[in-house]
Amino acid sequence: MSHGQTDQPNQIDQTDQPNEARNKDRILIKGAYLMTQDEELGTLVGDVLVADGRITEVGRDLSDDRARIIDGTGNAVLPGFIDTHRHNWQGALRNLGPAWTYQEYRNQVQIGLGQHFDPRDVHTGNLAADLMSLDSGVTTVRDESHISNSPEHSDAAIAAHWESGIRAVFDHGWPSTEAEQWQFGSDRTHPEDIRRIRNEVLSDDSARVTLNAMLRGPELSTADVAERDIRLARELDLRISMHVGLGEWGAKQQAVRQLEESGLLASDMTFIHLCTSTDEELRMLAARGATASVAGALEVFMPGLGQPATNRLLAAGVRPSLSVDTETIVSGDMFGVMRATLAYQQLILAGAAGPMDRVPGLPTFDAADLLSFATIEGARAAGIDDRTGSLTPGKAADLVMIRLDHANMLPATDAAATIVAGGHAGNVDLVMVAGDVLKENGVLKGGDAVFDEAAASRDRLFHAAGMPLPA
Q1: Locate the Amidohydrolase-related domain: which residues (predicted)?
Q2: CATH classification of 27-80+392-444 is 2.30.40.10, yes or no?
Q3: Buried b / exposed e across 224-257, counting CB within 10 Å, b at 16+?
Q4: Which of 184, 199, 309, 459 gets the most CB atoms within 10 Å of its CB?
Q5: What's the CA gap between 290 and 471, in Å, rounded?
Q6: DSSP string across 75-88
Q7: How many alpha carbons fall within 13 Å on the CB side of residue 293?
């Protein structure tokens, strides 16, 4: 899956481009506990037949003489997790600052290191993030790419997604060169290279790798720039993601309210964080059919953003999706995100939550809800629920099988609670994306060299930035 270092670090081998027929065996998974996330199919012990990259049948006592049989006994099969907000380019910088504040993260990563990334570093970071995602059962990532330092940087990020085999929504963002000039009141409009990518690189909205627009909105730019950027994205027929409700600045700007009042708020938008967005703004979001992404682990780890808005979103009528955000702060798996999101809810119930959550009668969620947030709601937020997010016949075979008979999972009395409370990447036995088997028998296929490249990329970046590596 990886490429070795070359003497020309800005050249990315893009030979592994759209080839959707790599490992598409005809496969029949038998006797698994199916958590389909499909309202009509529900949950059952049964079988899943995969052919030509799609789920063709779900039911009991299926048979197919041409299929390879996988024994699902003692396992849960569910749609692959969908991460609706991850800055993949930071994959080689993971686990650097779990105690960082938001400003420390910005100073160290976006401002300090981001300007020194060359395309090879972006490719390596994205590939490392993709492989870690796949290993932990994440089959779709919405890559919030604010490392668009040049067209070559964006092309390198996209090439990594094709190469890894993951399903990716590439959210084209802004550069991390002159990072401070692109955020918090910036008067710069979105980079025009998004037109080239839309027309020449990611024009097929049915492909495994597709394009969205990561816009700054009125919170990180100005009202005028936000309007022009939104109109650009809609001209190109792209869904939009936007970071809002970031700490005190977000509370002051009330970006969702600004968008509603200007007539720009619509169902093609996914709002990320919303930590300090008001309850009224969340109701506006719901009324327009927009979606939300909660980065529960990051938001409880990183002072300066505010707290997860999960329960307040539910009160407003929005079932959110879940996301990792940045691996520099938190683990890149969805198990940790689900647990942290649940942990914050329990603080609300204990009366120890932040001031915005001290409202009587906030609705609650449970482990089954979290699995829904991490699968079908993620697909809806990314605009791809027509092809993934549930074990529905006709959808792409993006699925995972999780061992319920491992020591840390037994006796698995409640499968959803067991996965959320005890699951980790080592319990993920099988991973498929569009029918391609990318992990089987607990072993990720390929990619070992990527992690050596990640270490070399990290060292080069710290040296270029004049920053000492942590001891």
Answers
A1: 77-437
A2: yes
A3: ebbbebbebbeebebbbbbbbbbbebbeebbbbb
A4: 309
A5: 44
A6: EEEEEPEEEEEE-G
A7: 31
Residues of the chain with CATH 3.20.20.140: 81-381
Q: Residues in the chain with pLDDT < 70? A: 1-23
Which tokens hold the place of 245? 């409700």
| C-alpha dist (Å) from residue 452 to 160, 271, 393 | 16, 35, 40
The pLDDT score that the predictor gives to residue 17 is 54
Q: Would you tell me how many other CB atoms lie within 10 Å of the CB of residue 208?
A: 22
pTM for this model (two decimals): 0.94
Region label for 309, one of left (φ > 0), alpha (ψ between -120 and 50) or beta (otherwise)? alpha
CATH class assigned to 81-381: alpha beta
What the block records as the tokens of 174 is: 């802004």
> Could you give the residue range(s) of every CATH 2.30.40.10 domain in the chain?
27-80+392-444
**How much helix, strand and coil, in percent to the nearest 5, is found in the chain?**
40, 20, 40
Is 149:175 a contact under the CB 8 Å cutoff? yes
Alpha helices in 401-447 (DSSP H): 415-422
Beta pairing, strands 75-79 & 399-403:
antiparallel
Taking the C-alpha atoms of residue 172 and residue 88, their distance in angstroms, rounded to an integer, is 12
Q: Where are the alpha helices (DSSP H) in 54-142?
A: 102-105, 119-135
**pLDDT for residue 22:** 53
Residue 234: both structure tokens together: 């809609």
Q: Decide: 458 and 468 in contact? Cβ < 8 Å.
A: no
Rounded to an integer, what distance in angstroms lies between the CA atom of residue 344 and that of residue 465? Answer: 36
The pLDDT assigned to 2 comes to: 34
Residue 337 has phi, psi (to 5 degrees) of -65, -45
460 and 469 Cβ atoms separated by less than 8 Å: no
Q: For position 446, what pLDDT does the model report?
A: 79
**348: which strand partners?**
none
What number of residues does the chain have?
A: 471
Q: Which residues are paired to 425 by β-bridges?
A: none
Beta-sheet pairing, 321-322 with 291-294: parallel
- Position 127 scores a pLDDT of 97
Q: Say how far apart CA 262 and CA 260 lie, in whole Å.
A: 5
